[in-house]
Structures are given as structure tokens and as C-alpha cells.
Amino acid sequence: MTQSQVQDFVWLHAAADEIYKIKLRASFVSTSGSPSSSIDDFYVLVQLKEFPSRYDAALRCLLNSDTLCLHIYDPAVRAPVDRERPAKWPARVVHGSTIMNALVHQGIADENAVFNSSDERHLILAVRRPKEIECRPNFNIMVVGDEGRKDYLVSFNFLADSKPCQRKVEAVLQFHPHANPTPRGQGGLQLFGARSTESPTSSNIKLKMRLHRDLLRGYGFFETLRENAKTQPPMQLAQGRSLPAVNLLPASQHIVDALMEDVLPRDRKRFCTYLSRAPLGFGLITGDPGFGKTTVLSVATLGMSIALGPIYACAATDVAADSFAEHLDRISEKFTSRLNEAKALGESPARRILIVRGYDIDDEVAAFHKLLENPRIGDKAAPPYNFALKPKWKLHLSLAFWLLVALRSPAVRPFHCDDPVGIQSLQSYLHNQSSLKRLRNVATGVIGYQEYKNGHTVDADRIRFMFRHILRCTNILCTNISLSCQTPYDRWKSLAKGIAVDEANNVGRPDLYSVWGNTLLPCLLCGDDKQLEPRVVSFGQKDEKGHSVNRLEDDGKLSALLFFKGNRWPVFRLRTQLRMATGLFGLCYEVAKDMPNFRYGPDCDISLDRHACGRELEAFLQKRFPELAPPLDGMLSEAFINCTRSKFYFSPVTGSGWNPAQSRRALHFVRDLVTQTKITPANVFIITPYEANVDFIEGERQKLYYSAISSMAPAATVDDFQGRQGNIIILVTAATETSETSEPGYISDIHYLCVMLSRHISGLVIFGDHSIPQACDISDIRKDVAETDKNPMKSMLSILMRKKRVATLPAA
Q1: How much is the pTM?
Q2: Does domain 581-809 have CATH number 3.40.50.300?
Q3: Which of 113, 123, 414, 553 could form a disulfide bond with 109, CB atoms 3.0-4.6 angstroms apart?
Q4: Within a 10 A sphere around the Cβ of 278, how many other Cβ atoms?
Q5: What does the domain layout of the chain look like in residue ranges?
């Protein structure tokens, strides 16, 4: 298992070192058409004609890492010192779809020239002049169009970080038979009970470590239990031979009943049974998209926090972690309200469970000061990191959020009487500290931020101290997995009494072990193994001799969820569709195959107000495309819009592509949809498999013609939309039948297709380009052909053709 991680990193790290030694010719383009002396942002066109093809695959993987620094050399400089000392500017990849508008606007090239250049070996980067002196911000740049324009030499410096690989390897090595126990389960002692007197090397800890190793090996527990039985008194012999079970629910039945209100009535009894007798305290929760997995996991996690103590909640990505934290907070609020409604007059009210969504601590401090300065900016207070990285910080439930709640700032929701005890104690502390009066005044708007800055201010260390106070009182901490091993969250993790992992289908086993430790903490995994798998950057890559660069790539692709399911561990499976309108899950169900039977829940009734936009969409489709068959009574259905003769532009350098015709057709459709119906732009979301296509769509949306949909959420890739939902999803596949043969990419991946076909609530419209049989042939398409077709995209199309839900647009 360690080798699957090491080989994945070493191949890329070695390639990055060799790529850095290669100097390539490049020219600079202004992003706005202004003279180079007055701007800081540039596009860089790097020629790859001389780039060795043996590094193509590695370069494609490295370009997705967001760690690129471009070293720029001026070949005209004669001084040896200056010639060898490059400018070091942060850079990020952009696509031909992005730079097209800049080139056309400046008259450097026309649109067709940009499209036709997609087949050439070149790379387009965006760079920004840095402020750090050591990066040479004053390096003279001359752009295309300047008098005396010239080419430069550049090299790619990928800042490969070995820490993630090291973390995963060390996580696996902690299960060596002679490894020390990880310090787990001693947490929240000042809030949740007396300190354990159990020695770290006690027989009970050793037994837990052996059982944990047995669990991960999947060979069974017989030998460990037999040896343990020998040490038991005669009266407890049978108990020593049985697998220990843990109750993950609170002892009080009325608390359990209040928790279970957020679970479907038909699932409550078996869910309580599953959690109350979890073997080894380990459980799996699974279900298909829209079945309420995160809700059920949140209920279980809240129960664990009450029964056991502080719980570390995590997910593979920041988007999934955000969603998990929001579910936990929302359910905690409703749960607390139910408890208080049932209390008699005069009884002490219940308090909400404190859920914190943790981010980088320096980002929290920077965002906090930004929100003091401008309380209305919300998530835009996120620090920009650098030019190459997108900010990941969100305001809701962050440490900055809770401190602002305690300060009664208008930047967040008002302080509530049911707020967690820890926040109420922090509020009292802030109120009683005279040295914090100016901080309280600027937070509440009594004084302006500039007046605050001109006087005594609270330094960053004091702010971090308050954040640590919040963490000490936190019941459930939610972060992405990598952040769980960084300060200050690694300390909190060592104090946790259990963990919960959402989207575990996207979590590799070493990642799980880095959170879990080796002392068999109670643990719940939740996910759907039909959706995205763990990422292995070297997957499918070959060396010059045709051998795989990672001989254990399949092992790296195996998720924690699928591994334990494959070992036949007891699984709690959800079988009711709760999100999508009736009829809208059928396509994903048929394409993915192997899914168990399901039923639609009460919220799927299309007559409900929550599906009003779906009914509007269907009426619009029927009017625009009369050839579409109406859905069955009481149902809604997906639609495929066939954009004939569209062209897919693919860059072999970046591994991304875009389709202008499909993207424009989709934008025209959305514009007409929101202007001719009651559907608002906020109800519509565009997703597409390729980053380049996202950039093209966002560039097109800047045009005046699309001003009606300017308030719509930005288009997103499938990866970025994983864990999110939208009322109406517009899926732009970008691919064509020809491109699928040469570059099958995401469309042929059943895991990606399942995500793409399951993000909607009330409507899904798919834009693509595929050959359609003549009308007389459609009746001959048999259901079994669609079910056995090896190409998921063709299978999807066959199903929609059988339903007569395909409309064809003439070539543009």
C-alpha cells in the first residue's frame, strides 16, 4: 500500500526535476491591450516544439497541481549574474478558450486562428508580477504589439510537496505490529468527563490495536479473539471470543428520538439497531445519489458526539467538507429546538452542538480582519493565497464566523440564546475584557475600521488565542483530510473520541488511516462507490518501455469505502430517493447498472412547490422542441439536445478541451429559459467535464447578450460540483462522437457520468453531439442493447432515444 503512494509521487517528482532543466521560448501578451509598462498581468505563450515528448504525461499531471512558478530569463542580457538569475513569477494554466477574447480584442489573431492553434504544441499561462523583491518584480517585459517585441526563455518550476505522500506512508506504517499507539480518544476532557487512567500500553489498548490490524487486513479476527479469550476469567470466556460492539447513540431514548426525526420513518428502527450495536464501533453508510447519505451521517455524527465526546468529521475535498458541516449545523439546530420544545417550563434549555469548519489558521486570521473592515463581503474575505491558487475559505461555521458571532458583528447571523455553551462563554469573556473594548466596538460598528487601526489594535496572536478557545469548546470539528494533520487541528484530532468521513468513496485508505490512527476509534464511513474514486495521478501512465510507472495503481484507486464493503463488513444501505423529482433518477439508475431497487420519497412529488421550476422547464422544452415525448403522468424526465457538427478542441498538453458550439447553444437555451419563464438564474447551474470549457463559458457570459443570466452561479467542472446540487442542471458534455473515440476522457468514465447525471433536483438538460439513428430505426432499439452497451455515454443516449427525449438542433 505504501508503494502505491510512493510510486505515484516519485515518478512525478523525478519528472518535475527534469522538466525544470528545460528552457523553452515564450512570448508575452497583455491581458487587456494596455502597454506592458502599466500592467502586472500577462498571458504567456510557451512553445513546446522542443519539449521532449517523454515528459508529456508528467507535464499534464503537474499542470493540474496549482504549484507552478514560471522562471523567466532574458536571453538579451549580457551580464552573467543577471542572465542566470531568473524572475520567479507565480503562474497558472489558462486555455485557448480563455485567451481567445484577449487576442481577438487586441487584433493579434482572429477566432478561427485561435481555434486552429489548439492542435499545436504550446502552453498558455497567466502570470502576475509579484511584489517580493527576490522574485524580481521589476523584470522588464515586452508584449506582443510593443515596439521591439521579443521572445524570452522560460522554465517550469513545479513546487512539488512531499508532505502529502509522507503523511500517507506514515499513516500506513503506524499499523506495524511494533508501532506505538497513536494518542487518540483522550479528548475534550475538560468538557466531556474525567481523564482516562488507561495506560497507553495497557492490554486493552494492545487488543484494540490488534483488532484494528485484523480489520484492515480483512483476514478475520479468530486468532486475536482466541488469544484474548485465554486471558479472560472462566465466567467471561464466551464474551472474550465475541467481537466487541459499541453503542454509538446516546443512552437517553428521548434524545435518540429527537435525533431520528431527520431520518425517514421506515429507516429509523433499523438505523438505531445498526448504530447501537456497531461491531468494533465501525460502520458503513451507503446509498445512491440523492438518497440522503450526508443527512443520515450527520445524524449519526451528532449522536456520536453526545454519546462519546468530540468527533472529527472530515471529507476528501473542501466542497464535501463544507456540505458536511452545513448539514451538521442545520440538523443540530433542529434537534436542539425539538429538545427545548419538549422541556417543561423552568427546565434548563438545551444548547446547540458546536460545529466548526476548520481552515488554515493564518487564513482565518486574515479573513477575520477583512470582515472587521468590511462586514458585507462574506466569503470574499478569503485571502487570495497567491495568483495561482483559488481561495478555499468560506465564512459559514469557520473560526472567524464564531468569533464574530460572539462579538455580535453584523457580518454574521445574530447571537442566539440556543448557541453553544462555548460561544456563550467566549461572549462573556470578550465582554468582560476591557482591553478588547475597541475590538468589540469595531466589530459592532460603533467605530469605523480606520479609527480602530489608528489606535490600539488586537494583535494576531490574541486572535489565535481566541480561536484556540473556540477549538477547546468544539464538539465536532470538520476539515478536509489533509488539514487534519496540520496545526492546530492535528492536536485536536489526537483528542477526538471518534471520526466520521463523508464521500468516503473518494478517500484512499492511507488518507483514512492518517485521520483514524491505530487504536480503533469509533468510525463511520459514508459514500457511494459509483461516484468519484480516489485520484492517482500516475494511473494509466507508461514509461518508454511500455511499463506502468506505478505498478500498484489499481491498489491506489481502491477507496476506503469499497475496500471494507468488499470485505463484507455490515453496511447500512439507504433505498429511498429524497432529492430528485419523480422520474429524474431513472437515467442514472439505468446507466450505472448494478444499483439496487429504490423508491421515490414524499419530497419527490412533482406537484410540490420545490419542483415548480422543473414543471416550468418541461413546459418550455415541449414548446421549444415539439418532437420530445412528454414524460409519464406524475413524472419529469431528462432531455438531450443534440448539437450536430459541433467541434471539440482538445489540448494534449493540458488534457482539457472545449466545444464552442455546444457551449453557446447551452447559454442561448439558459438565456431564453430565464427570460421566457418564471425560472430565475439562481435556479440554473451549468456543469461540464473540462476546465477549458468552463473558462470558455464564463468568457462568453461576459458579453452583453447574456446580461440576463449574469447573476447565475459560475459554471463548474464535475469535480468542483461533486457534493453539490442544483434545481436545474445544464450539462455540457463538450465531447462529440469523434472525440470520444480519440480522447474518451471523462465521458467514458462511469464514475464521472454518475456524478454528472445526479446533481439535479428538478431538471436535467444535456447538450452533446452524437449521431442519431433515423426515426424509423428508433423503434428497433431494444432495451437489452442499452443495458449491455459497454460505452456509458452511448448507453445513456440509447435510453433517452427509447424514451423519445432527444431533440436535434441544425448545424450552426
Answers
A1: 0.90
A2: yes
A3: 113
A4: 23
A5: 2-161, 199-243, 354-474, 581-809
